[in-house]
Design a protein that fits this description.
By secondary structure, the protein is α+β, with helices and mostly antiparallel strands. It is about 20% helix and about 30% strand. It is built from 10 helices and 35 strands. The strands form 5 sheets. It has a 17-stranded mixed sheet that branches. Strands 2-1-3-5-4-6 form a 6-stranded mixed sheet, sandwiched between helices. The chain has a 6-stranded mixed sheet with strand order 10-9-11-13-12-15, with helices on one face.
Length: about 625
Amino acid sequence: MNIKRILSIILATIMVISVLSACTSSGEASVPASVDEEGKFIYAITRAFESSVEAEAGVKAIRKAIKDNFEVGITILRDSAIEDFDGNYEILVGDTNRAESGIAKERLNANRTNNANDFIVAVIEDKIVIQAMQGTILEGACEWFVNTFCQSLETWSMLKEGYEFIYEHHTADASYSNLVNNVDLGKFTIVLPVRTSYLVGMYAEDLVSFYKHYGYEMKSIEDIDDEVTNEIIIGDTTREASKAIEVEGDNYVIKVVDGDIVIKGGSDLATQRGVKALYDAAVQIKDGKGAINWSDGYVINGKYDAKEEGAFTLNWYDEFNGSTLDLNKWGEYSGMAKEKETSSLGGMKCWQTPFSTPYKEPDKLKKLIYVSGGNLHIGTQRLNEIDFVGGMLSTNYTMTFRYGVWEVHSKLPPVPCSLGYWLNESNMDAGINGRFGTGAVQDRRCFTEVDIIENFGSSTSFNANVHRWWTNNNSIDGATTSSGHDSLDGGKYSGAAKNNKKKVYDTERYEGDLSTDYHYYNMYWTDEFMKFSFDGKTYLDYQFDADPTGVGPYCLMTYFITECQMGDASYGATYDPNVHGNYYEHIIDYVRLYQSDSVNCQMITAWPQQQETGKSTIKYPDHPIGGTY
């Protein structure tokens, strides 16, 4: 739902009605419209010390309207700039430290339960307060304020002492309410472990989205946050109610404990099934089929069933529990494995694969790719004063897939190492063709690259991205005439955007960095979207229909690549021989691919790279394989 777009349409239609229906009386005086001793408008615009992007945009819109339409200067302040005092005329935007901001929000909250998209404009003593239940609504609220009161001194005079208007955003109508101990489920807070699989958080996000359509802002927190009243506690959290429940294997439990809902399974798939059970029960209110009405002690015991329609199943994985790399699953990336590049110190940088390293002095090399202690280790090495080698491996020759949840549980390498988890559709050439059949190897003049993560040499941040690459061929002789590339860079997927392809790890909140311990890196891919998540929470949601000229990553089969490197001349962090070491490792606990028959998933496995012939296995033989651009 594009709240800003909806508000811009609705607010214009309610402008006059809101003024006439506001809680004022004709005998009350208008708010002042004079200038202060410095010749500026008597009201200053004040926002919070840490205000949202939307609040900042709203503040600027109000300042511009008053400056242009009233022909007077106006001051903008942060709430910490001065202490409040009697006669301090302010237009308060958002959650400032002024008491009036809190009073207005309490009035808005008390007005109705499903108030997530509502806002209030109120005159309280010497303040004009613009407040909303969530930051994304503030910009629209400020636009309404500008259109209603800031067009002229005459419209400003309609603001009376004691004025109050609450905008109620139109929401879908539910036939019933879901209640737990007589508390509306939409007012509950979801609690997830700090680190968990996206499988655990997937249906929790769907529950939040469902309730958003009904005007609820269902919050999500982590188990290191303080407990709040009425929680939905999911998975193996540190909450006492969660630790008190024991469940094993494919079983899951949903239990109401002291007004909280606890959902716990014996595995990630079982926990996911438990959360889905809550979601399925909650959404029935939209069809009038019934509603939840639970109380303390209510229990549901269920079980994950891989044969259930729509169930996610673990279709491809490597837990790295042996002593050697499984060459039935891993090999080289045909597009890069043999390349030699220039290093940042003026020498050479090359790649070690599971089979070879193109370096003239092999006795100086460590074994960069090995399995030990239940982990895959991928190293990178400085070979001498100027030369470097990195480790790389791929499923390019052994497995290709489309759609599902790809999950890596790993420790990133420390600075200055770069690594990536990425999917590619190129280089499915004639040498690989026979492994996957002609259906999986379509015309690759246009293909998609998906960066699940790229850390660019950082141990505190990483990026996701989706790229489309193409060539235009001459229709007569097939010669390449041009090529192109686009991606999610810029615009709504970067910078200050909430839906940001860059994830920054909060080292103060969690301690350590991404090389200190294991984390979950996930990508959920369907024919409608790609969602990128970290430790079970989505940070980038790329909806294909919202970007019709975008990269189109819904067509073709793809494969996985990962690596660890340092010393590149143009990529990642700069290698400093006085600071950085000669050897580092990237450690993977496991790699897993979960898929469901509810969408057109596909997976084909083939024989090992160094084996000339073999047998391919198609996981979903009844599903069509890929498509065309």
